[in-house]
Design a protein that fits this description.
The chain is 74% helix and 0% strand. The chain is elongated and about 105 Å long. The protein contains 17 helices and no strands. The chain is mainly α.
């Protein structure tokens, strides 16, 4: 209680000094007088109780404490991590990368956060955590981490690219465009940045998300306008396994008696196969390893044309093999170009909700 009375006495003494300074208005002086009376009554002390006085006045105590806090902050910020801390931070970053590969994004965030605690001046740690945040749907957190990364290393192109992805996911396409452009200034040969910039510019012109359409609510028209996706589909169609499957399915455009169907049916079958193969990669962008459903719907046109003309035959087996090939290719693309896959996911999520339900993962 003695410490409490001593503190109250110091505060009352400080308020008396303020009254004596003559720098306060009459209203302020009146308020301080009321405050002093309240404190004296509440703590049973008065300014005459000099036995409660301490060697330093309240302003001096405050100034001393402020100076010490400032010194601690300066030492903390200027202190460089030790070699052991740097090595441990790199090890934690590697652990975070491993968790990203197995899609354990929450654990990845924890590892990156620990690495940041050991070395908060490493832009890569913040940028990697931003990628993990984006995977978790925490786009605001991703934006903040990208800002930190850019503040540490203004020439880090990947931080600008991931900032663009996060902003695009928040439907802030105008801001995303500016960050994609900066990323391209730093890395002009990056095809992913070029594709993402084109998508963001298109979305900005549209002014609103594309309506649902195509396969199961997938915005097929939007996907086909994505150069990165079209490149994926082209690579898939050039795959020898897929070309062999196409040849088998195209044979269904002829009837068992040897008579060819109309050229239109054959063309429909070929277009359906091509659409199915491309959609397998696109569906993978939305559904991960379960890519087959999208391809099945698109390739149905081909299977249908073949079965009408030539019976059931082997069309179902060929279609199943085509879906499987699309899944395998999509998994490869996920590993080789995860940012493009994330952009395709974002493009699909940007469509308005349909009555069929929510496709979010």
């Amino acid at each position: 209680m003695a410490d409490t009375k001593g503190l109250a006495f110091s505060i009352i003494q400080f308020l008396h000094d303020q009254l004596s300074s003559g720098s306060l208005s009459s209203d302020a002086q009146e308020s301080l007088e009321v405050a002093i009376q309240c404190l004296e009554t509440a703590f049973g002390v008065s300014v005459e109780d000099q036995s409660l006085a301490v060697s330093q006045s309240l302003p001096e105590i405050f100034a001393s404490a402020t100076k010490q806090t400032s010194k601690v902050k300066t030492n903390s910020s200027s202190g460089s991590p030790s070699e052991e801390q740097l090595a441990e931070a790199e090890h934690l970053k590697t652990d975070g990368n491993d968790q990203m590969k197995v899609e354990n994004f929450s654990a990845a965030v924890e590892f990156y956060s620990k690495a940041i605690q050991l070395n908060p001046q490493n832009a890569v740690y913040f940028c990697n955590r931003a990628a993990a945040y984006s995977k978790l749907g925490n786009y605001a957190g991703a934006v903040q981490d990208c800002e930190r990364a850019i503040g540490i290393d203004p020439s880090y192109s990947k931080a600008y690219g991931r900032m663009g992805l996060a902003l695009a996911s928040l439907n802030k396409y105008s801001e995303a465009v500016s960050y994609y452009k900066k990323a391209l200034e730093l890395d002009p040969d990056n095809d992913t940045y070029k594709a993402n910039l084109q998508i963001a510019e298109q979305k900005m012109k549209e002014g609103q998300p594309s309506p649902a359409g195509g396969l199961g609510g997938v915005d097929l028209a939007g996907l086909l306008s994505n150069p990165g996706f079209m490149n994926m589909a082209s690579n898939l169609m050039n795959n020898p396994q897929v070309q062999q499957l196409m040849s088998g399915m195209m044979s269904g455009a002829y009837n068992p008696m040897g008579g060819a169907t109309s050229p239109a049916a054959g063309a429909a079958a070929e277009a359906g196969v091509a659409a199915g193969a491309g959609a397998a990669a696109g569906a993978a962008a939305e559904a991960g390893v379960a890519a087959g459903a999208g391809a099945a719907a698109a390739a149905g046109a081909a299977a249908g044309a073949g079965s009408v003309a030539g019976g059931a035959g082997g069309g179902a087996n060929d279609l199943s093999s085509l879906i499987q090939a699309g899944q395998q290719f999509a998994q490869q693309m996920q590993q080789q170009n995860p940012e493009l896959i994330e952009q395709l996911r974002t493009q699909m999520r940007s469509r308005p909700p349909s009555s069929a339900g929510n496709d979010e993962h």
